[in-house]
């Protein structure tokens, strides 16, 4: 029986992935990289900023420029995912935590801009807390410990393959979410292949799946 829900943030709680990718692409193009948003999404969705920088061979200081651009886009355009306030309100009897590869600074900004922070009572966790991002299971196991529950009673909601793999590796139930504006044809199939039990395209489906 599910006692706690562990939510990814970008692309699940908030419809932010395309804004994040646009921020990256804007900075990369300014540095001479020939890359567009669709290709960037396909290649890097679900990865931490450190992983992206490492893969592209960019210096660590690039992240500050990217972060500044993304935050500007957030303040102008960021929206909560459709139905998420309704679902969280109706499932208040369960424990909830955010478990994300994003930085705490980014998570706090996103939750505040979308009026979601109050649903989590401070249970907001970043890969910075564990030193290992998804697909390692560490962030989900850390969140479960902080909530005082065992992995087998946790349900993970994820929109990325690394996130689904992390939830499965943590020994938790995993549902995929493919309702974000960044999700293209085949996204749901990728989540199922990674181990998601099923895939939602509307978060309101969660109430019937519990």
Automatic annotation (TrEMBL):
Q: What stretches pass through the bilayer?
A: none
Q: Does the keyword Methyltransferase apply?
A: no
Q: Check the record and name the InterPro entries matching this protein.
A: Beta-PGM-like, HAD-like_sf, HAD-SF_hydro_IA, HAD_sf, PGP-like_dom2
> What GO molecular functions are on record for this protein?
catalytic activity; metal ion binding
User: Per its Swiss-Prot or TrEMBL entry, what cofactor is needed?
Assistant: Mg(2+)
Source organism superkingdom: Bacteria
**What keywords would UniProt list here?**
Magnesium, Metal-binding
A Pfam family found in this protein is Hydrolase
Family according to the record: Belongs to the HAD-like hydrolase superfamily. CbbY/CbbZ/Gph/YieH family.
Protein name (Swiss-Prot/TrEMBL): Haloacid dehalogenase
Q: Which source organism does the UniProt entry give?
A: Deinococcus cellulosilyticus (strain DSM 18568 / NBRC 106333 / KACC 11606 / 5516J-15)
Taxonomy-wise, where does this protein's organism fall, top ranks first?
Bacteria, Thermotogati, Deinococcota, Deinococci, Deinococcales
């Amino acid at each position: 029986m599910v006692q706690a829900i562990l939510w990814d943030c970008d692309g699940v709680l908030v419809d932010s992935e395309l804004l994040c990718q646009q921020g990256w692409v804007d900075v990369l193009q300014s540095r001479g990289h020939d890359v567009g948003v669709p290709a960037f999404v396909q290649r890097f969705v679900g990865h931490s900023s450190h992983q992206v920088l490492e893969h592209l061979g960019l210096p660590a200081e690039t992240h500050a420029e990217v972060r500044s651009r993304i935050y500007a886009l957030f303040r102008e355009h960021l929206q909560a995912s459709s139905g998420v306030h309704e679902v969280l309100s109706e499932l208040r009897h369960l424990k909830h935590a955010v478990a994300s590869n994003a930085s705490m600074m980014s998570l706090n900004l996103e939750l505040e801009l979308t009026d979601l922070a109050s649903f989590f009572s401070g249970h907001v966790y970043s890969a910075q807390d564990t030193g290992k991002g998804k697909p390692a299971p560490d962030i989900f196991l850390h969140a479960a410990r902080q909530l005082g529950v065992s992995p087998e009673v946790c349900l993970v909601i994820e929109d990325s393959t690394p996130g689904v793999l992390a939830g499965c590796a943590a020994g938790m139930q995993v549902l995929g979410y493919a309702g974000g504006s960044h999700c293209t044809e085949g996204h749901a199939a990728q989540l199922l292949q990674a181990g998601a039990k099923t895939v939602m395209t509307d978060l309101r489906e969660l109430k019937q799946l519990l």
